[in-house]
Amino acid sequence: MKSFDYVRPETADAAHEAAGRFIAGGTNLIDLMKLQVETPEKLVDINRLDLRGISTEGDGLKIGALVSNSELAADLRIRTDYPLLSRALLSGATQQLRNKATTGGNFLQRTRCPYFYEPHQACNKRTPGEGCSAQGGVTRMLAVLGTSEHCLAAHPSDMAVAMRALDAKIAVTRADGTTERLALDDFYLLPGDRPDRETVLEPGDLITAVHLPAPAAGRQTYRKVRDRSSYAFALVSVAARIAMEDGKISDAALAFGGLAPRPWRDGAVEEILIGEAPSEALFGKAADRLLAEAKGAGGNDFKIPLTRRTLIAVLNDLTGESA
């Protein structure tokens, strides 16, 4: 690990003035620094900032950026009204890591693409313009939707997938002091020709909170398919909420992990379901729409049929249809 400066500001203004790389739990960043994939010259520890706590906000919740994954998963309001979020959090990492990992930091996890983690391999995400060794390489964990010729990396977070299905918004304080709330589709960027740009954040921008809307009607679940039953990243995951009325689907929210460079949600898939009676034919049609532009790269081709089966199984479960 290369040497770096370290500061612990007491206020958000001081954190911005410190002009360095923010760190909270450090569960991903420290690993990247050890491998010299990332080499920040200054770390700004934000753990002394007033960014903790889970509070009621209107009919929804405000979650501080420094709330740990363990605290969030265990909160009774989350378990009762947003259970798919609790399930997603508990499916990720170890208890020790969840105790350190923060809500804000979870959104900023870097990909687990093996070429990104190996400095001797070409990676446009790590070094723009260098090339993408994943093209024609080992692709088992990589994306099949939203990729480009410059990058095949998949986003690793479970929590962010759940947040996408729940229509969460991320509160950001910009370096100039202005604030805004961003939907996840506006927060994350697709790789295009700049895979190194993963979000709209600029240097000095700070995630301060996450806002969840009022709980929506319906049954919820988070299903994660992985190589082993714990401590593994998703091959495919589905965060889903389905509401039924008079034997038909009245509302639906579906987000997917392991498939794309960001938590993936396609409104057209939900539109196919809403207003229709559950059936295998309907669920197959929804899967067709979701995967219409999916493209494997050899080692990850299996993700396409696996996603179809996982989505159909989740829809069967939530609508009361037999699997």
UniProtKB/TrEMBL annotation:
InterPro entries: CO_DH_flav_C (IPR005107), CO_DH_flav_C_dom_sf (IPR036683), Diverse_Substr_Oxidored (IPR051312), FAD-bd_PCMH (IPR016166), FAD-bd_PCMH-like_sf (IPR036318), FAD-bd_PCMH_sub1 (IPR016167), FAD-bd_PCMH_sub2 (IPR016169), Mopterin_DH_FAD-bd (IPR002346). The keyword Zinc does not apply. SMART domains: CO_deh_flav_C. Pfam families: CO_deh_flav_C (PF03450), FAD_binding_5 (PF00941). SUPFAM superfamilies: CO dehydrogenase flavoprotein C-terminal domain-like, FAD-binding/transporter-associated domain-like. The keyword Flavoprotein applies. Keywords: FAD, Flavoprotein. Residues 1-217 form the FAD-binding PCMH-type domain. It comes from the Bacteria. One of its GO terms (molecular function) is FAD binding. Coiled coil: none annotated. This is Xanthine dehydrogenase family protein subunit M. The lineage of its organism: Bacteria, Pseudomonadati, Pseudomonadota, Alphaproteobacteria, Rhodobacterales.
